[in-house]
Amino acid sequence: MRDLGNFGFAWRSIASVAACAVVLAGCGSEVTTAPALHLDASQHVAAHQYDKEWFNAAREGRWDILDALLKAGYPIESVNSSGYTALILAAYDNHPDTLDKLMAAGANACAADHNGNTALMGVIYKGQLDIARTLLQARCDVNATNNAGETALAFAALFGRFGLFDDLIAHGADPDHADARGNTALATVQAQGNLAAMEALRKVGATH
């Protein structure tokens, strides 16, 4: 499977946004349907003994496998080589029921990958706004930034998810947050000539 990649770094021009989308597409499931996993009730698994099964199950929304591994002691916050947790993968691959069960089991909805990108940022990119609203209920820091200093609101502005603006603001999003380069979301979309995004941001309080 290809990496989800740096989906927070490339959005300074239309060309860079297109490149970002190509990289992000790699998070899609490129796995075959996993068979059921049968473990004895008393069996305890080593920390990384079933990594492949765990992450494939998360991508496929296979709660039966995840649950079996959790009951056998598999660590719920395990990460793969890109820093993705099961929760990040289940959210990104649009498995709301599995996401809910992972959250109920104690999975950290605020966790970020190696690039600082959270599950919320990933589903905003995908346009999965219902899942985004579920993640907002976890009360994570809505102004958390990735390694480029970009927030969930900046993702929503860039990818045209204006329907989520009110939800983000209601949870405390700063409409004038500046990224690591000193650019606000409004300044970024203005540089792109994105009039719709500019208007939507100003409606929720962005000033510069």
Describe this structure in words.
It is elongated, with a radius of gyration of 18 Å. With 208 residues, the protein is mainly alpha-helical. Residues 1-26 and 28-32 have low confidence and may be disordered. It has a single domain, classed as Serine Threonine Protein Phosphatase 5, Tetratricopeptide repeat (Alpha Horseshoe). It contains 11 helices and no strands. Helix content is 44%, strand content 0%. 41% of the residues are buried.
Estimate the helix proportion, in percent: 40-55%
Q: Give the tally of structural domains.
A: 1
- The CA-CA distance between the termini, in Å, is 40 Å
Secondary-structure element order, N to C: HHHHHHHHHHH
CATH class: Mainly Alpha
- Mean pLDDT across residues: 85
Q: How many E-type strands?
A: 0
What overall form do the CA principal axes indicate?
elongated
Summary of the model, kept short:
Keywords: ANK repeat, Repeat. This is Ankyrin repeat domain-containing protein. The protein has helices at residues 14-24, 51-60, 63-71, 86-92, 96-104, 119-126, 129-136, 152-158, 165-170, 185-191, 195-203.
Q: How would you summarize the topology of this molecule?
A:
Layout: H1 14-24, H2 51-60, H3 63-71, H4 86-92, H5 96-104, H6 119-126, H7 129-136, H8 152-158, H9 165-170, H10 185-191, H11 195-203
Helix pairs in contact: 2-3, 2-4, 4-5, 4-6, 6-7, 8-10, 10-11
Organism: Paraburkholderia kirstenboschensis
Pfam family, one: Ank_2
Keywords: ANK repeat, Repeat
Keyphrases for this structure?
single chain; 208 residues; mainly alpha; Serine Threonine Protein Phosphatase 5, Tetratricopeptide repeat; 0% strand; elongated
